[in-house]
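Q: Hi! First time doing this. I have a protein sequence and I read that you can turn it into a structure. Is that right? Here it is:
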Amino acid sequence: MTALLQDEGESELAVCARDLRLVEECGCGDGFCQSIRTADHPRGRPYGPGHRCVPLSPSTGMLILDVVDGRIVYIEVLDRPPLLRLEERAQPKGPPAAKA
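A: Yes, that's right. Below is the predicted 3D structure, encoded as C-alpha coordinates:
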Protein backbone atom coordinates (compact mmCIF):
# COMPACT_ATOMS: atom_id res chain seq x y z
CA MET A 1 0.00 0.00 0.00
CA THR A 2 2.86 2.39 0.73
CA ALA A 3 4.23 1.94 -2.80
CA LEU A 4 0.77 2.59 -4.28
CA LEU A 5 0.44 5.74 -2.18
CA GLN A 6 3.86 6.94 -3.36
CA ASP A 7 2.79 6.29 -6.97
CA GLU A 8 -0.26 8.52 -6.38
CA GLY A 9 1.91 11.32 -4.97
CA GLU A 10 0.61 10.71 -1.44
CA SER A 11 3.99 10.56 0.36
CA GLU A 12 2.63 11.79 3.71
CA LEU A 13 -0.04 9.08 3.70
CA ALA A 14 2.59 6.50 2.71
CA VAL A 15 4.52 7.32 5.88
CA CYS A 16 1.33 7.17 7.98
CA ALA A 17 0.38 3.81 6.45
CA ARG A 18 3.37 2.14 8.09
CA ASP A 19 1.84 2.70 11.54
CA LEU A 20 -1.78 1.75 10.89
CA ARG A 21 -3.56 -0.42 13.41
CA LEU A 22 -6.58 -2.62 12.89
CA VAL A 23 -9.53 -1.40 14.93
CA GLU A 24 -12.24 -3.56 13.42
CA GLU A 25 -13.10 -5.60 10.34
CA CYS A 26 -15.84 -4.26 8.09
CA GLY A 27 -18.24 -7.03 9.06
CA CYS A 28 -20.54 -6.61 6.05
CA GLY A 29 -20.29 -10.33 5.27
CA ASP A 30 -19.76 -9.87 1.52
CA GLY A 31 -17.32 -12.48 0.21
CA PHE A 32 -15.44 -9.95 -1.92
CA CYS A 33 -14.91 -7.46 0.94
CA GLN A 34 -12.00 -7.48 3.41
CA SER A 35 -12.22 -3.83 4.42
CA ILE A 36 -10.89 -2.66 7.77
CA ARG A 37 -11.35 0.28 10.08
CA THR A 38 -8.13 1.84 11.26
CA ALA A 39 -9.83 4.34 13.59
CA ASP A 40 -13.02 4.41 15.60
CA HIS A 41 -15.99 5.70 13.65
CA PRO A 42 -19.65 5.85 14.63
CA ARG A 43 -21.64 3.70 12.22
CA GLY A 44 -24.21 5.33 10.01
CA ARG A 45 -22.72 8.81 10.29
CA PRO A 46 -20.68 10.63 7.65
CA TYR A 47 -17.03 11.43 8.27
CA GLY A 48 -17.73 15.15 7.93
CA PRO A 49 -15.32 17.99 7.12
CA GLY A 50 -11.75 17.05 6.29
CA HIS A 51 -12.79 13.76 4.63
CA ARG A 52 -11.52 12.64 1.24
CA CYS A 53 -11.27 9.35 -0.65
CA VAL A 54 -7.98 8.15 -2.08
CA PRO A 55 -8.43 5.41 -4.72
CA LEU A 56 -5.33 3.30 -5.35
CA SER A 57 -4.53 1.15 -8.38
CA PRO A 58 -3.31 -2.29 -7.27
CA SER A 59 -2.66 -5.00 -9.86
CA THR A 60 -5.77 -6.86 -8.63
CA GLY A 61 -8.95 -5.71 -6.99
CA MET A 62 -9.56 -2.32 -5.45
CA LEU A 63 -8.11 -0.35 -2.54
CA ILE A 64 -9.87 2.85 -1.55
CA LEU A 65 -8.81 4.82 1.51
CA ASP A 66 -11.00 7.10 3.57
CA VAL A 67 -8.78 9.86 4.93
CA VAL A 68 -9.86 12.41 7.55
CA ASP A 69 -7.57 15.34 8.32
CA GLY A 70 -4.57 13.48 6.86
CA ARG A 71 -5.23 10.25 8.76
CA ILE A 72 -6.25 6.95 7.12
CA VAL A 73 -9.40 5.87 8.97
CA TYR A 74 -10.74 3.11 6.69
CA ILE A 75 -9.26 0.84 4.03
CA GLU A 76 -11.74 -0.56 1.55
CA VAL A 77 -10.29 -3.83 0.26
CA LEU A 78 -12.37 -5.35 -2.54
CA ASP A 79 -11.88 -8.31 -4.88
CA ARG A 80 -8.37 -9.08 -3.58
CA PRO A 81 -6.70 -12.35 -2.59
CA PRO A 82 -7.51 -13.27 1.03
CA LEU A 83 -5.52 -11.44 3.69
CA LEU A 84 -3.67 -13.63 6.16
CA ARG A 85 -4.45 -13.12 9.81
CA LEU A 86 -1.53 -12.76 12.20
CA GLU A 87 -2.12 -16.24 13.66
CA GLU A 88 -2.15 -17.76 10.15
CA ARG A 89 1.21 -16.16 9.34
CA ALA A 90 2.72 -17.54 12.54
CA GLN A 91 1.82 -21.16 11.73
CA PRO A 92 4.58 -23.31 10.21
CA LYS A 93 4.18 -24.19 6.55
CA GLY A 94 4.23 -27.73 5.18
CA PRO A 95 3.02 -31.05 6.54
CA PRO A 96 2.74 -31.48 10.31
CA ALA A 97 5.81 -32.85 12.05
CA ALA A 98 5.75 -36.57 12.89
CA LYS A 99 5.36 -37.43 16.56
CA ALA A 100 8.19 -39.37 18.21
